[in-house]
Every structure is written in C-alpha cells, then in structure tokens.
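Contributing new records

If you add data, match the layout below exactly. Sequence lines come first and carry their own label; structure lines follow with theirs. Keep one chain per record. Anything else will be rejected by the validation script.
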Amino acid sequence: MSDPSNQMNLTLDSRIFVAGHQGMVGSALVRQLRATGHRHVLTRDRADLDLRDARQVQAYFEAVKPDAVYLAAARVGGIAANQRLPVEFIQDNLQIQCHVMQSAFAVGCRRLLFLGSSCIYPRDAAQPMPEEALLSGPLEPTNAPYAIAKIAGIQMCQSYNREYGASHGMDYRCVMPTNLYGPGDRYHPEHSHVIAALMHRMQMAREQQAPHVEVWGSGEAMREFLHVDDLARACLTVMQLSKTAHGRLTTPERLHLNVGSGEEVSIRSLAQEIARLAGYGGELRFDARRPDGPARKALDSTRLLSLGWRPRFHLASGLAHTWADFVARAQPWSQEVNA
C-alpha cells in the first residue's frame, strides 16, 4: 500500500497553524512563512486559546482544520526559571504537546513539526552532540523536567508515525535547536534565556550607573547560539521535504534533526560583548557559586547541513540585530519586570 503522507505537499495555499506565535520562535516562524508567500498562516492569541486545555484545543482544530502545524508553543526559560518552577516546566509542556498532537490527528492534519531543545541530550554527551546521543546518559539536572517533556514530545511524534503512518498518513517531524536568541525574546533579567537576560541587566546597570553586574556561573562554560530567524528557515526546510527525503536523514526510532550554528562562545565573552552593545563600562562579576550547567553544549548539525541550509547570522551581527529589538521594546520589558 502506498504511503499517503508521501503524496502530501504543502503549498502556499495550505492552512498552517503556528502554535505559540507570540513567542520568540513562533513569531519568527510567522515572519518566515509570510515572507515566503504563505497565504493562510493561522494564529490564536494565548488569551483566546489555552493550549493546556484539551477542550479548547479540540474546538479550535475542529473549527480551522489546519493542513499543517508548527508546534512552537512551550513554557521556556533559563536556569533560574527551570529551578524555581520545575512542575510548571514539565506539566505545561506535556499538556501542550499532548493536546496539540491529539487534536491535529483527530481532524486529519497529517503534517506537524515539533520543536524541542538541545537540553534533551545527556549532560556528559560527546561534543558536538549527534542525534544518536539522545537517552545515552543522565540529563543536566538544572533543566531535567523541561528536557523530559521535550523527549516525551519526540516519542509522541515517533509513536503517531509508527501507529498511524501507514493507515492515516501521519508524518510528524522534530527539530532540536541549540540555544536561541533574537527578536521577540522575553527580556527578563532572571527568567529568560541568557542573552535576553544579560541585555536587560546591562541596560539597567548602565541607566542606574551600577558599579558592577553579577553574571551567573564562572563564565567559562561554552555555548552555541543560533538566531531565531535562522531556526525559522531551517524549520521550513525540514517541513517542506518529501517524506522520502526526510526519511533519508532520519529513522523511525531517531526522528529528530539538530539545528545549530556551529559558532560557540564562552559566557564570559558573551557578557563582555553585550556590555559593549549596552555601553556599560562597569565590572562584570562572575558568581561561580551559581550553576554553569554543562561545560560545553554544541550540536552536530551535519544532517541538516546536508540539505544546503546555512545560518545567515553570525553571532556579532545577530546580537546587534537583537539589541535593536530589545531597545525598541524597552517599555514593554520594563513593565513586565516590575509586574
């Protein structure tokens, strides 16, 4: 019997739902979809659709019947947020993933792309981390609840394909991005990703003429960063592959593809560059009592690179681009932190 999902091609007239369009990743996906001419990009505000509520999600999918879904909705944050809210990080993400995938299946939406995170890999995995490193060792404890939820999302996609691929044409896919930054991030001084948090803290320190800024960790940890617009292009590349082409890069038991920039930097050098962008000349104090996380965390993106995709932003230009977005959104982030 022929595989019906291999006959399904997304077109510019396909109805595409971006779950989580108000977040950094989701908003980048919407920009990229519209920039490439997609005419029916479906979104729903958080206030009108709580993805943690199964009945709301089911009703929405029955009303709009999307042809494809980008599952970018998630509760995300940095080390501080993960340590403070472990229940929310595992529970909310599991609920979102279950409800969106179940409702997509129920209305016959055969193509879905699930976005995970590089934190799915073991703390001590060989660097750079290949897709095969998944489940090969213990996770980094500072974000294990979030990582386990994302691993569950991968397993769910694999399970839908295995159980319903041949009979219903289900073709669910997964990408695992490295550390992200870019326009639309949540610029919170403690609960956001490291680049957004540092931008806020350097700006506030400059405005308040603070003599020093505290940075979590020793500053020696190495991290790979990817601009969110480059991730969005990678997502569209993966989503638009035929099932045959996608199957050359994956297996039913290893469905996910890494998305990394290949560009690494120490947290110390990163903080120094953001201080320069902010015009902050005070002291940077690295608090080694705070957790560093893994000493190095980089992805092996060989499989994705074989498709011809390449990042367009180097870190220096990407940080400048993100700084401009941060400055433009100065009032909203000030209100958010004071809330």
